[in-house]
Amino acid sequence: MANVKQLSFLKVAGILFLWMGSALGGIPLKAAPLTTEIILWQTTGVSVTGTVIDAVSKAPVDFATVALQDKGGYTLTGAPCDAQGKFTLPQVAPGTYDLVISFIGYKTKRHSITVPEGTASLQVGQIPLESDSKALEEVVVTGEKNLIQETDDGLVYNAENDITNIGGTAADVLKKVPSLAVDIDGNVEMRGSTKIKVLINGKPSTLLADNLAEALQQIPADMIKSVEVITSPSAKYDSEGTAGVINIITKQSTMEGMTGQVTATAGNRTNNLNSNLNLRKNKLGLRASMGGNFNDRLGDSESDQVYFREENLIQSPTKLIRQSSAFENNGRSLFTQLGGDYDFNEQNNLSASIRVNRSRNLSDRTLTTSQFTPSGEEQPEGFRFRDIDNLNRNQGFETNLHYKKRFGRKDQELDLIAIYNRNTSESDYALTEENGEDVITRLEQSSNLGTNRELTFQADYAHPLEKLGNFEVGLKAVLRDAGSDYDFLFTKTPLVPLAQDPARSNQFHYAQDVYSSYFSYTLRLQKTYTFRVGGRYEYTFVSGDLATGQIETNLAKPFHNFMPNLMVMKRFKNDQRLRLSYSTRIQRPGMNQLNPYRNESNQLNIRYGNPNLEAELTHNTELNYSWLLKSTSFNASMYWRQTNNDISQYQFPISPNNDTLHTTFRNLGENATYGTSLSATTRFKQKGQIGLNLNLFYNDLRSFVGQNAIHRSGFMYNLSGNASYRFVNDFSVQTAGSFTSPRLSLQSRSTYNYSYSLGLRKEFWQRKAGISVNVENFLFSNNSIRTTFNNANSNNYNLSNNYNRIVRVSFNYRFGKMEFKRGKELEKLTGEGKRKG
């Protein structure tokens, strides 16, 4: 009786929640399925039983799915078959229904039944299923899906199929994604731009908002299922991210039963331990994951700052300052995530998750500065040695609640989402400076405590219009509140206590509220043409202030943006598609770009943010062609990206005769990118796969800041490839590589960057366990990057060495039992046999 009461309570709660969601969405619920469901779940009814068998062998089809539908096509209840192919549907009200039976490798069977009155049970006998060889072939292809797949809006990289990712981080995964590039410092760019929006499972995260390069090191690659690169986002997506959207999809099990996995990795640069557990029983699913990552990084650099005096366009050197630096970083991170979902019925689902993460990064760096005359004579009074200790701590909390309502029509859905993110960070450094006689000439301590809170409310509704296409509308509110409390202490001798510098100590508060609405209409004609038109309106109000008013800010202002979105696509024979798309995107300045906190750990290069930055707007146009022929796919794109009010890093001297450079951010001008991307993937012998990707673009940069306009332009490219092969006895090998051409900006040029990897994997214990060995950049111990930076009074020549030879060994074990088995014919085709975990 207690179970009946609990079930009734959940049903009533679910019905009330549905009506609330319906009222918010302004959509009336259909009465038919609700009424039928109430009748179905009465305490009395008829028990319907039967057996599902193979039409040829007459053997039972274990774990097939049986659904009970009324004559209107509404699914009322359902149940899986047991190991003998038997099923039971309890408490069915008298009436006429259809039994819909489905299973992988078989044609879906519809079987009509009549449930009479005055009886306690109904035996429908044996129901045969006919084999579907085409479906079986599709399952085999899906089980060995391509590493790269094309979508209407971009592409998908199936990270779980790449064994070289095992034991790595999200940064390692993104290095192998077409259209993306990751530089030596972990910065990610899409088609030549770092202005991207990164999501996790389609939702924003403050973990990724403050320092993307550092955050990607905290996400284990073993938790990533795939990565979506969306170069032409529809109006449903936030307009943030002028280059596009990256959506990281994590692994989540929807199978009945209990499953779990533990992965341990040991290596010379990284050590980690990650685990996850999934439980699903009937309508309730629970999942938990936790892990820790330990990584070490070494590097050094050397730079020559050549100062000059310019007369009649001729630069005459006045002095040279040489700096050499060496660093060692030790990073630690931990995370825990809990989630669950409950299916009230086939139309209503509620899910929630909580994630807590902590990280710490300790860096020990030395900086040696020497000064020379134009003739090369060293000046002893210019010698300085600095020992700098940096400590960064980060703690994040994320939670979200997601209610999904499915209506009677296919693809008619309502989503209500609430998200709360909170992130706190602490960035400290302490330095000791000595002269050439080992006398301490300066002591500094600096601390910066940051907070970032974000609250999101979102409602999305999709409504199919029969043969007239699909219509989507939505509302969203994102409320951000960020702060930075920074303090600076110094003294020029250890005999005098550290004292606060009021000019470098302050509190900065920043708030940004974005309210948006969108519509998107998609029309498909005769399975040949697809048209999509949409628009997104965003109202943004920002405010910012400093506790003390040494710096003027211009932040308290609202602005309005309407971003149109268009797409036309035609399908040809042999799975060919041609797509033309246009969208407008926006890039608002981030907290790190706005915060006026000054980092003076390098006395010759002072870094700080600019609280007077404005948002930049970008127009994206793309023409895409894709072709799928049997086991080979090909994709080609031409794109044009025009950015106005471009936010870029800017370096300048405060005066012509001052050695100190200031590095900050400004709205510098215009940035036009014209490019093409090509990718091809092919399979061979059903066990091997090769893929090649090329992104070639021309960047035209124009600046109107300063006394003289700056114009720079040039070609750049990214080239990547991968190859894999699965041998007998569950042994597989995979290799991947990428090459990034030299890069240019308005003030700098840098040399090429590359990475490559080789992975070997052996599975055993019926593929429940496996050992992987991965090596990266094994031919050379370090990767060197040369950068030239041009300023009004000097030129800087920098050489950076990053020691990135990586070797790691990983062991993973899957455990548990899922209530799911493959059919005999599927087992015969795949050769995998039955798998319980």
UniProtKB/TrEMBL annotation:
Protein location: Cell outer membrane
Superkingdom of the organism of origin: Bacteria
One Gene Ontology CC term in the entry: cell outer membrane
TonB-dependent receptor plug domain segment(s): 168-245
Primary site of residence: membrane
Family the UniProt entry places it in: Belongs to the TonB-dependent receptor family.
Location of the Outer membrane protein beta-barrel domain: 405-813
Molecular function in Gene Ontology: carbohydrate binding
Alphabetical list of PANTHER family matching this protein: PLUG DOMAIN-CONTAINING PROTEIN, TONB-DEPENDENT RECEPTOR-LIKE BETA-BARREL DOMAIN-CONTAINING PROTEIN
PROSITE patterns: TONB_DEPENDENT_REC_3
Membrane topology, as annotated: Multi-pass membrane protein
Organism: Rufibacter latericius
Protein name: TonB-dependent receptor
Xref: InterPro entries: Beta-barrel_TonB_sf, Carb-bd-like_fold, OMP_b-brl_3, Plug_dom, Plug_dom_sf, TonB-dep_rcpt-like
Keywords, alphabetical: Cell outer membrane, Membrane, Receptor, Transmembrane, Transmembrane beta strand, Transport
